Task: structure prediction
Amino acid sequence: MRSALHEAPLIFTRNLSLRIGNTNVCHALNWQVNPGERWAILGKNGVGKSTLLTTLAGLRRPQHGELNLCGVQIGVSPAPTLSRQAQQQIAKRRGYLAQHHSDPFSSTVLETALIGRHPHLGRWDWESARDRDIAYAALNEVDLAGLADRDVQTLSGGERQRLAIAQLFTQQPQLFLLDEPLTHLDLSHQVAVMELFKQKTQANDCSTHTGLSGLVAVLHDPGFAVRYCDHALLLFGNGEWLAGPARDIITAKNLTRLYGHPLREIVSDNDRWFIPC
Amino acid sequence: MPSRRRAFFVLVLLLALAALSLVISLAAGSIAVTWSDLFTALSGGSPTGEASLAVEIIRGLRLPRALGAFACGGLLALAGALMQILLRNPLADPYVLGISGGAAVGALLAMLLGVALWLINLAAFGGAFAAMLIVFGLAHGDNSWTRTRLLLTGVIVAAGCGAVVALILSIAPESQLRGMLFWLMGDAGQISEPRPALAILALSLLLALPFARELNILARGDVLAQTLGISVTQIKRGIYFLAALATATAVTTAGSIGFIGLIVPHLTRLGLMKLGWGNDQRLLLPAATLAGGSLLLLADTLARTVLAPQQLPVGVLTALIGVPVFLFLLGREKHA
Result:
């Protein structure tokens, strides 16, 4: 029974339809994300990639179809809000990295990373030494260990983005949902961050769940998508979608249609890169 | 880094400060009191001979006023801290945003109708609630435009309330004027019964504290809070209600006292950050409450002694301190 649960898909959709305003994000999406899989979502600006991701995160309701997130059934709009129990079950198992992070108040980097422990703490608990160790380890992974006592309001854009990633690691989710995780990062940190996420889905290094982790990331560079993700979901903006193994789906032909701009594929040392013509 | 031990240390220190402020305010005044008078008055013993006058003054006049001022300062600081989180804006304050003005309008309308005292208090609460509904409905969010819009909305609401108050004052019968003027400028001198305010202060703090860690996350955005499993709407409603209750209680007890809700949470936050202890609502809410109470208590003591026998309304004094601090913060915002 236990093992069955951990083999179960992290995300499962059947006939999922989603609209925002006049945009048809996806129509009748039949899709699933299994533990150990890394998915890239590609598409033009404004086709609803972020909307789909927030829906998959359980933060908004789909219009039609079935969505199961980490074992919790998310009802279609206008469904009643999830029970507290379901909310907490989801909060422990899926992490969501938003595109924007706001810090209206001063706070330390360590405190901000520790926020990720919230779902794992009881109402009266304070962060324990173990929670602090988890946060320090996460800061270390994203190269921010030396800045633990800094005020978040003084961080640069790239540092703030890495702090958000550290917060996500501190949460120790089994499913990572990332909205443009490479925003503001320089090239070396882009590679370092994607390598980190790859590690997290390949090995199980946390105690809160026993299965492998999964990842869904909205990316803009198809080269990064084929290099770090094994699957891809393309959104064409008219409700049409295409999902499957990255090497079959991410091709110059599909990308040319996806972005409405001709692209060329370049292969070097087994890495495939796509450049606009 | 927040920890229980540090929080305990800070709170003990602030409790000592509050006790010291109380002793100062009981001892200061035109009639000198001795340590033994203070002790007799507070321990409930019966005084003898000469001491009885001093004890009477402490028990009958200074103690209710001091406790009332402390409660109001604490309530305003707590309300300010909660509003700042709800609006994700460090400039939020019950007075600046017109919430105190709303309470004053409610109370004055009730007084004009000549209703019972408890109805006046209820009307003040209704006024505070309505003003908050307007301000929060029009201005939430955290980008620079909503911050400007928030302050504009607050200023407009406050101005509107000021106009309504002026209107009521000009048509009110002469006999009611004195009581009404009290609502315009905060004055702790009228407090004869501080217990309801103290009780509501303790209740609000006790209700807010269990949710303090959630507030830490709400301060960073609704989406993040929702992601981490927090029932955003319910908690926001609860905090909104507590902030309105605290403001209305403070206003019905001592009139519209300005800027405590702005300065105190801000300085507390600044102090804790400077110590490297971060910005944690579990510590900040009780710390700001104690600091706000002590500050208003000291300000009121100053207000009644500095030009003795003339007594100044404490609201005048807090405004004189608050306006430059507010302008300074606004200037800093521009550079941030």
